[in-house]
Amino acid sequence: MSAAIHPLAPLSASEIVTGSKLIKELYPAETDIHFKAITLAEPAKQEAIPFLNAEHNGKPLPTIHRRAFVCYYIRNTNKLHEAVANLSLKRVESNVRLGPNVHSSADGEEIIAVEKVALADEGVKAEIRKLHLPAGTVVICDPWIYGSNGIDDDNRMYQCFLYMRDPFNSSEADSNHYALPLAISPVVDTVTMRVSRIDHLPTGADNTVKPTVPYKLKPANEYIPEAQVLRTDLKPLNVVQPDGASFKVSKQETSSVIDWQKWRFRVGFNQREGMVLYDVRYDDRSLFYRLSLSDMNIPYADPRTPFNRKAAFDLGDAGAGIMANNLKLGCDCLGSIYYLNAVLSDDKGGTINMDNVVCIHEQDAGIGWKHTNYRTGRAVVVRNRELVLQSIITVANYEYILAFIFNQAGEITYEVRATGILSTQPLDDGVEVPWGTVVHPGVLAAHHQHIFSLRLDPALDGYDNRLVYDEAHAMAPSDFNPLSVGYYTKETVVEKSGGYDVDVDKNQIFKIQNAAVKNPVNGKPVAYKIMAPPFQKMLALKESFHYKRAEFADRSIYVTQYRDGELYAGGKYTNQSRGGAGVRAWADRKDNVKDTDIVVFVQFGINHIPRIEDFPVMPCEILKVHLKPVNFFTKNPALDVPPSVQSFNKSDLLSEAHHQATSTLKVDEDSSCCSSKL
Amino acid sequence: MSAAIHPLAPLSASEIVTGSKLIKELYPAETDIHFKAITLAEPAKQEAIPFLNAEHNGKPLPTIHRRAFVCYYIRNTNKLHEAVANLSLKRVESNVRLGPNVHSSADGEEIIAVEKVALADEGVKAEIRKLHLPAGTVVICDPWIYGSNGIDDDNRMYQCFLYMRDPFNSSEADSNHYALPLAISPVVDTVTMRVSRIDHLPTGADNTVKPTVPYKLKPANEYIPEAQVLRTDLKPLNVVQPDGASFKVSKQETSSVIDWQKWRFRVGFNQREGMVLYDVRYDDRSLFYRLSLSDMNIPYADPRTPFNRKAAFDLGDAGAGIMANNLKLGCDCLGSIYYLNAVLSDDKGGTINMDNVVCIHEQDAGIGWKHTNYRTGRAVVVRNRELVLQSIITVANYEYILAFIFNQAGEITYEVRATGILSTQPLDDGVEVPWGTVVHPGVLAAHHQHIFSLRLDPALDGYDNRLVYDEAHAMAPSDFNPLSVGYYTKETVVEKSGGYDVDVDKNQIFKIQNAAVKNPVNGKPVAYKIMAPPFQKMLALKESFHYKRAEFADRSIYVTQYRDGELYAGGKYTNQSRGGAGVRAWADRKDNVKDTDIVVFVQFGINHIPRIEDFPVMPCEILKVHLKPVNFFTKNPALDVPPSVQSFNKSDLLSEAHHQATSTLKVDEDSSCCSSKL
């Protein structure tokens, strides 16, 4: 037992090992256990709250047992288990075999093994030989999550897509193989670890599949810098903090508490969600118990087999934590950077050191607020300093840059940048299809949606909150509205758990409120509003597996009554899932969500219709969800930010003929002609 | 004649003076002319295009006469004129008296005069005396554009709102008087320059107006830093470009040509629009003939007189150029800054030096694109450098921070930050109304909409362009779509000029295309897409003056066939306008807009439901419109940006226990286990 570890802190290396040991001891010594995750089983919230209260009030801390959630297979079987190991008491509290049709995620070791299996398969080799590729050509295998169609898919499988490196530069290990897709697609069974089937991909405008024929060579399309003629006219831009950063990181065993500009919160990190923020407070007022990216789903548009099973859950099928990049100084963030490391579990029950998975830095985000008094000419301008916690994940071809951003006006932004490489497939010359874009000769990038679910577990001035929405409506013409210009807002309280859309034409704004705490100036309940970009919901039809599985993808907002363990909007096990175990199901309980402990899932996304400009690597597409106070404070919370001045900002003047006003901005009152002194 | 001045460059000081002189010469010497604007009359586009073509091809430049557009009153009359003076030939080409019900904008000198008139009026003084304000109290008068209601509003007038400085600190010229509004509202006639009426403002929940009674003192709410306890824990963050900036500014008389990262464009500046960009090109390919903020309208929600006339057109009623801030080094921009100056006209026909009205700088905007090859561990990451041209305008209480932002991926962003002070009015204690928020004791900030119109005059690979929109639709279930997951995009060509909405649920994306120029790789027409945030359209009813006047505020997109002079979406004269002279009227011509010279007006905005956090100065609310290439290039245009490396970016490592990987990111191929070498 590690008494020193905070109940919300991730498992330590020794705790992970203890967890795997406890599970291994359940079985004979020769049993080969394939661990999928050994991660913190968070304490029940009713247990955690008294701890947090004691912590904030400097009272003695209650004891909370540390527990590991362990998900594992008996290796090379379909025997999936989930267990909870009490690390404090060193015993397994529960151990349940799951299924049928419940499958765990991929893992890095397994993906590499599947690649080898597919490429070593004699049938696959025979198909590749039929391509008559130049000698030395390197074929690459990208295993894909199999997806669900309800037809012979009870086993856990991988659908592998084959590509090749530029055959004229085969030794380049970073050749962009996505520019050279092949039409051969082996399926690997994870129990037998053998190729169970070789699919041929349709490469025309219909679902015809053709036998493998000699490959007509296509040009390469590389993204590595040595393959480009690089621009030479970009000058360095350095961010310098001569007195250091304004934030403080207090490392507490496996988690860190961040203090910055009245904000304080704890950062955790786990296999599935990556970054998790706990106990988010501003100026010692509670805002959120927990914030995390809960889920994402990427359904593809191509209707044809096997593409019609492509609908990746990158968190549940892979893991935003385990796929996190080791961030590099001077590459992924700019300025004065603090990195956080994490420890996760490997497939043998050991540990993986995940270094530099979160970078923390400040950035200047332009002007925060400004006003110029036109009578005196005096301007007061305050810049908007932000604190960024960024993590980047690579899920095969794609990258997501995920960030929590805090500012000095009490606002939190969750930012997603989608980048990386489009998932490609071969297309016959001269063919056009309406579900994808030709991004390179012979290469189709199919349309796809990225639908994200951000989980907000609010605690605005306490744990009993409500969800409301405002609408703005025109007033009817009347004696009171003689010019027909009036309009008003109307607030509606969400009484029952459910899914909700956001109607821009009504200016619907969802807010989380604490109805018991009123603003001392205007008497309104304290609140935070949710500003998420509207998006096209999942296009797959209601009867489809895509729709059933991505339980969050049909609504902008889901609200549920809090229950322990309901963290992932698509359900706990998304790989080849069948639906019914995620937020849509939880919301269907029609629980009371008024003035109780609620959870809000905020969905947002893009329908990515590829442009040729998105290849070979796409420029970031940026999505932002803002959480902003509404009558939570008594005035602009950034009013006390020191004004922006040259002595602090030290900007450089480039324009020679520039006439800057003198530093005396305040004009003597007598020279101000536009006031009447009584 | 100034042969050296580019036909699209703003008028020089001497040209302004020549223009006013030519007008003055039309009248007897004693005639007092009140100039409202003396600004470049841009050449007909058919005249400008051959000039630009010659310019880009290094051919001899055709001669284009320089012309001034002059708008003026015979002072203290309603005699409004618009004239065009040929500066090259030194003669007035046209001079037309306008009206009735056509009025010009406010101007700075007039506003100050109106303030004086209102505060010096004996009736107003008598009303103020009834307030029994403490001795020394300073009353402030904010003249507002009168608006239109069709009732006794043929004359041009100002509706003045009165406030006071904190009576306990009356000598503070920068006291926030908006925290202390009074219920007395004088109306000033601009012909007589006298108070024509004193309105009493309703201060309750209905439209009752009460006689002036002694004022009950309220607390102040200041925004100036000396009234705050400032934060002391914010450390400096400096942006340093040791080798200078990457952009080049070529000053050419009154305009500047900017070269940066394959971009090239000309910057103009005028009284009404402020910044205007001309002849925007990327890598020597034409993109836009002209880009500018065309108009904005801010209608208020309060249905009661006189608030129901509040609907400001900050460009047409005031002017984004003439209201531009003199930007300060180290305050308004961060880093290495180049400032542009402008020269505008004053009310006497002279000139006003507008220094530092545009600041130009580069900024780092996070990661531009990234991909990590999970097999080799090699990451290629490119940061997104942006070029920003920023201008800030103050329109009485409000500020707008307006910026054109360019990046290395061929994208242009137009950014608006709304900040400044809410327009306030007095409210009785204990009253709540559904059309506004109490932001301070006794102070109501009414809801209002900010609706912007961005004018795009495209020239994608030539001047004949079209507007199309894509939609994404689910496929019906079929043998071809057996899993009901397929979807497709459909492109519709806009044939006739008109107004269009953007349906997010159909993923409608508007694109400007040149159908005659096909992408060499995929054969698609070259295009730029328009990504503007959806917004609630104007709530004022169709029969209202607000609706009729703000001709752009009911649609997300307007497209017209190009005609010279159709620059301002709300019409040329917005002050007390009656409608019928703006983009809705132009679009109603139902002109062909397919493969011809078109103009696209992009609307966006916010329905600002004030929060108490928006007072006394509101944190910036940020809106962005993106223009992004779609099949315009043959690959990611930022592919040739040098990768992000520490030797260039020089970041600082804060975390001591940080383990950075060695600089050898490229793994030897032999150690990469996941490829099959033939």
Structure commentary:
The structure is a homodimer of 678-residue chains. Chain A is mainly beta and 678 residues long. The first copy, chain A, has 3 domains: 85 residues, Nuclear Transport Factor 2, Chain: A; 117 residues, Nuclear Transport Factor 2, Chain: A; 339 residues, Distorted Sandwich (Beta-galactosidase, Chain A, domain 5), CATH 2.70.98.20. Chain A is built from 8 helices and 34 strands. In chain A, the strands form 5 sheets. In chain A, strands 10, 11, 12, 13, 14, 15, 24, 27, 30 and 31 form a 10-stranded antiparallel β-sheet that branches. A 10-stranded antiparallel β-sheet of chain A has the order 16-17-18-19-20-32-29-28-25-26, with helices on one face. In chain A, strands 1-2-3-4 form a 4-stranded antiparallel β-sheet. Chain A is globular and about 80 Å long. About 2% of the residues of chain A have low confidence. At the A-B interface, helix 3, strand 5, strand 9, strand 16 and strand 17 of A face helix 3, strand 5, strand 9, strand 16 and strand 17 of B. Strand 9 of chain A pairs antiparallel with strand 9 of chain B, so a sheet runs across the interface.
Lay out the secondary structure.
The structure is a homodimer of 678-residue chains.
Chain A: H1 13-24, E1 33-40, H2 45-57, E2 67-74, E3 80-86, E4 91-98, H3 108-120, H4 122-129, E5 138-145, E6 157-164, E7 184-189, E8 194-200, E9 238-240, E10 248-252, E11 255-260, E12 263-270, E13 274-282, E14 285-299, E15 311-312, H5 314-318, E16 336-345, E17 351-372, E18 379-395, E19 398-407, E20 412-420, E21 424-426, E22 436-440, E23 443-446, E24 448-458, E25 466-474, E26 487-493, E27 498-500, E28 509-518, E29 525-531, H6 545-549, E30 557-561, H7 583-587, E31 598-608, E32 618-630, H8 646-649, E33 652-653, E34 675-677
Antiparallel strand pairs in A: 1-2, 2-3, 3-4, 5-6, 6-7, 7-8, 10-11, 11-12, 12-13, 13-14, 14-15, 14-24, 16-17, 17-18, 18-19, 19-20, 20-32, 21-23, 22-23, 24-31, 25-26, 25-28, 27-30, 28-29, 29-32, 30-31
Family (chains A, B): Belongs to the copper/topaquinone oxidase family.
Cofactor (chains A, B): Cu cation
Subunit structure (chains A, B): Homodimer.
